[in-house]
Design a protein that fits this description.
single chain; alpha+beta; about 35% strand; elongated
Amino acid sequence: MKHLLFLIIFISLNINSEDNNHDHHHNEPKKNQKSLKAHEHGVSILNIAQDGDALLFEFEMPGFDVVGFEYKAKKKEDIKRIRNALNILSDYKNMIVLSDVAECKQKKGSSKVINEGTHSEFLSQYLVKCKNISQLKKLKVMYFSSFKYSKNLSINIVSKNKNISHFTDRDNSTINVSGYF
């Protein structure tokens, strides 16, 4: 439980920290307007936290990386892209594959898109319980094959044995997690 609490604090700090990595210029938000966390197109985030035999996966993805645009979908074709993306995000196996020997099953999951002004962001979370979590040796990131505009993924792992950050791309989509859980 302490690891999950740590991840919640970590994510909260990450969301609330100022980030100037957005690579496009936009009009300044109005004073009372909330704004999405700044992001860099081509770079998404995966946070993974362990709590006993449970793993929480949380993806934060710029709209462009998922559907190829950042604006609020109004055209029929764009709305179809959004719905398709949310359908893909509804199953964690479209985003990450865990080794069968760990015997993991999804218990909860959610996905949504947030639009604000000229920015959009997709968020998905998955709670997975594993019978043999210590047997989890590799994670295969399916995110890159699920979304053709995706390029890089920043991965933060908080587990009982390690707290670590990785940066991966399409060419290195398998992550060695032997000894993490």
